[in-house]
Amino acid sequence: MTDDFAPLSPRRDSRPIHIGDVQVGGNAPIVVQTMTNTDTADAAATIEQVARLADAGAEVVRLAVPDRQAAQALPDIVGRTSVPLVADIHFDHRLALVAIQAGIEGLRLNPGNIRDAAKVREVVQAAKERRIPIRVGVNEGSLPPLPALAEGELPVSKSKRMVEAALWEIGILEEMGFEDIKISLKAFDVPTMCAAYRDMASRVSYPLHLGVTEAGTPGAGSVRSAIGIGTLLAEGIGDTIRVSLAADPADELPVCWDILKSLNLRQRGATIIACPTCGRIEVDLIPLVNQVETHFQQQGHPITVAVMGCVVNGPGEARDADIGLAAGKGKGAIFRKGEIVRIVPEDQFLTALLDEGERIIEERFGLDALSETAVIGTAIKLTPTPAPSPQRPGRASQFQK
Ligand code: SF4
Fold first, then answer.
1. Which of the residues 50, 184, 357, 386 has an alpha carbon 20 to 30 A from that of 329?
2. CA 262 – ligand 1 centroid, Å
């Protein structure tokens, strides 16, 4: 990566942990994760959804474990997915114990609703024996109750309450010599979540899982998440991210990847540059852009493709693109790094651009690359933690540096 495409800030040093074979923190690339919305008790549906989410770019997937039926399905799920799984536990610590027994690769505990230190210790002891990391997952909507205020005393800010809730649980974990900790401090309000994460980042070296909680519908929620997560990542804070949308969880993953791409932190698949169109345009550009994006995203290789609306300004405006089309009336120019390489008639715009794309992929990644999916900054793989699955296919076959 050249200086021109360097990240904005150096990454904060964090202590590495391992969720199955995926490293989070340390020098690992920022890990992309999401959460299933199937009934976890339905093992087949959950396995199928995890596979779909992994295909869409999830490197770790979290499952809700709200009750005993869900926990009892975990032995049928764990080990049958291509990415490691994290059990999301609220209220009942016994569900965490069942998940650990089932071989789950990570746990999320909410310090806002498991407040009995003895129960937390019981979980920590079991996690320690299996070397399973725990996310101390604070959510602004489920904070411990506020203590009564003395007369004249001002209430503590929400971000401080979030940090204090996390530190309470971290204290219990540390007392037991447990350091495989990851922390999240999610709020809907972006300034609140940024303040909480910044405060925590200055206090501890554990890796941070970033997210804006209940961010909303795909349009507004993606913007809110990109601003919250992106602000912190731009400051070098954050080791793994999840975008939470009121949508199919697969829709969250392109947003995660676009956040990472926008900050030059990681790349997955092609980057598409498209002009916004203006009064100079003489072709129907937008359907063409969508076709180009679908094709190159499926190809999965990290190249930059431009689709521009006029020959006069297109090649110059998209000079950094690996390849591009500047579409004029009746004919257009195919260019590479701003230099026109050929002129093609309008009915060949799409095929000519796809041909040029195949050429550049072959030149850069080799012939075999045309049928592979590629990720730059692949999550670091390590020796699996105990109780790995014999059924899990290797992730190396899906991703490459
Ligand atoms: Fe307008 Fe041409 Fe620029 Fe597109 S490339 S925005 S059509 S000037």
1. 357
2. 22
